Amino acid sequence: MTVVVEKTEPPGRPEKTRPAEEPAPAAEPRRISRSMVLGAILVVWLVLFAVLRGRQTLALGAADLTDLHRWFNEVNDSIGANRNSNPLFLYFFNEIRLVVDTLVTFVQELISQPSVGRPLPQIGWLGVVGIAGYLSWAFGNWRVALLAVAGFTFLGLQGLWQESMDTLALTVSAVFVALLFAIPLGVWAGLSDRVNRIITPLLDFMQTMPTFVYLAPLTLFFLIGGASATIATVVYAAPPAIRITAHAIRTVPETTVEAADSLGATRRQALLKVLLPMSKRTVVMGVNQTIMAALAMVTIAALIDAPGLGKTVVQALQSLDVGTAFNAGLSIVVMAIVLDRVTTAASAREEEERRSKNRFLAWRRPLLGAGAVLTAVLVFMSHTYVWAAEFPGEGGLGSSIASAADTTTTWVQDNLSGVTNTVRDLITNGLLNPFQSLLTDSPWWLVGAVLVALGVVLGGRRAGITTVVCVGLLVATGMWSDSMTTLASTVVATLLVMLLGIGFGVWMGRSRLVDRMLRPSLDAAQVMPPFVYLVPFLALFGATRFTAIVAAIVYAAPVAMKIIADGVRNVPATTVEAATSAGCNTWQIITKVQLPMARGALTLATNQGLIYVLSMVVVGGLVGAGALGYDVVAGFSQGQLFGKGLAAGLAIVLLGVMFDRITQAAARRTSA
Questions:
Q1: For the chain, does the N or the C end have fewer beta carbons within 10 angstroms?
Q2: Per-residue pLDDT at 46 exceeds 90
């Protein structure tokens, strides 16, 4: 109600009215921000750490085993003793191993290993190069064909032809089996919401697990060798094809499907005549990702005696032979680039032909026919003549490359050791050691409580429950101390990844020119298998855990940069223009507008960075990273530590699941 109070006004001035004074509203309680809660958790942790340091840390010696580790060893021994009598192995696991091993042996005898009654494979180097060039031309274009011919010839000149063909044989076998299941399952998931809901958590879990983790349990059931390597590769490489195929089916316009239905097309006809043809390009991208994942996994599977380039790299890394490791790593990179370019060109070929007005396209089919005849001739010659079957020369180029790498390594160590050691010591002593001490010297229950609290604050109740389960299982594995050491390296590396990601990602997001310049290099960096990153940093920093951290940073930074760049670019231009017109400078626009509005992308980049870093830090166990990575490698090489290695693999899975659930939940809350 408004009360009018009469007041005498000077002549000639109108009367004024004003509302009666109302009581001031009660002050709202100040909200506690998430950052304040995180700060309080950190302060409490530091205080309790100072009081309880060194107590109840659950430390375990390198040769010590828990009851769980001994039980794993007993299970392994029992399976080995009953492998040929247990019906589950006789009629299931052994049969699967036999089928896969037969496939791998067939492909190896075709291109890499001597076949029955022959001292050489069925198809020699000339035939393989001819087939590679022809298929690259048929599925891509003549430029890609030239790249394939040059790349495969380079593998031979390096003196690594047979090792390269072994790697290719395992990759081809694994991709064939993976696509045999992945494409139909992806189509099914694209057509059925129920199937998609069922398999999505399983695919999340499979893609969260670092590559190391697939190896130990599979060797338990399928023994060490090519079969286990192929099966592990199938498990690792299939999820991208399933996801991308399902996405391709779901993104076909509904109007197109409705038009097919209105014309009386059956469900089968709609799938074969509409959905699959319209999603072909995206499905080929899924095949590309499967091939890249398979190649990465095949090289790592050298730890379970898989033949090929990976075995050469592992042996060289273990003996700190940088030259040999660099030469073999370069071969892996060349093969990865060729396979990536061929499948990428295949996905874009039809669109390029539609846009192109090249008159020679009319001659493509006759030329392909002539190319097929020429390829058949090359295959026949490589099958018949020794000079066309066995790559000529003794790999002089590879020896030169290895020698140059060794010379460069020596020069770097002699002349740049001051710089590299300073960088290493600065990050190790200033950041890594204090944080690792905080994690490993705090009581296990205190660190567990902090992790659960962080899960609840950042990701919500469900993330907190997941963290409780993961912490409890980590304690049960007996690998708590090593898990905290791995956690310290992972968090430090992820922090540095995000610093690089934000710096370059913002630069790319704000400048199209910078994006065009950097993105091809980032794409190429993501093609390289994880092993390759260890080699140059082994030369720079020696066999230390810092080597694994730097390799992890370089491995994970490209994906973080690309995600952040896309997030910054998606900030509405009108918002940026409004901030500019309000007088904001560049720094204010970045920090007050673009980064806050790209928080979802930042959180997603953190999620992906963590997963990539965790995978690479574990691989770094080969070059002195220690902790869980070393435990897994030791489990493969020392029978009495198999159970401990298996438990370490489980601990890696738990860390990955915990990281993934917290960061994904945080991303959803940020973007909500």
A1: N
A2: yes
